[in-house]
Design goal:
Layout: H1 2-24, H2 28-40, H3 44-56, H4 61-77, H5 81-94, H6 101-114, H7 124-139, H8 146-174, H9 177-190, H10 196-210, H11 214-227, H12 232-244, H13 251-258
Helix pairs in contact: 2-3, 2-4, 3-4, 4-5, 5-6, 6-7, 7-8, 8-9, 8-10, 9-10, 10-11, 10-13, 11-12
Length: 260
Amino acid sequence: MLRFAVVVLCLVVGIAGCSKQTREAMYPQDRLTLADELRSQGKCYKAIPHYEKLLSEFPAKDIAEQAKFNLAWCHKELKEYELAITGFEDFIDSYPTSPLVDDAMYFIAMCYLEQSPMPERDQAMTVRALEELKLVLREYPDTNLKEEVERAIRTCRSKLAEKEYLNGKLYLRLGYQDAAIIYFDTVLSDYADTPWAGQAMMGKGVALVAQGKIDEARSLFEQIIQEYPSSDLAEEAARYLNQLGGGKRSDKWTSEDSRS
């Protein structure tokens, strides 16, 4: 009985060993298929070792190309952004004529954008993402990712505009109207197509009133009503114009608004 158990155990160990050897000695296409299946199932952490082993075996160009791209993509999905960016850059350098180059460039941009913090904080990552996105459109104007790229560009620009607006609002609250106006003007000149342009006009109007420049402020409030009819901004502008009355400065309004 004991001898039989030993024989069975040896067979089990042998089969397991053979199975392991079979997995280790998979054909490149089979390993790629397995890795891609794991990736599609959301198991990137399991797919990565297969892609890495596959690439270490120097498979055919088409298999290596797909493996290198998918490996970088998996790192991005796992939020391993530095590894993902390095992987996509390596892919572009290795296969500059690949039809996936524009995709790799887009994903590099998204790696930066996904690391971008709240608007109140430093926006270096947002700036970098915007630069990469513009590069995609410049080099691949007909990319099949054009809509996604343009949407991401709008997101970046809106975030950068909000950052400038919040800086202006902070300086306005602190009573530094000149500095506030500089930031509001940046929004109006560089990000006029974003939702923050109207807010910047309002902030600049408040700052101008605080400086006693009533006519300039009134002109801005009237412009807000004209450009944003039937909006909350238009209602605010109308209320502020009423508070200005015949052109006299309303200290109560400016101080309350600068704290909002």
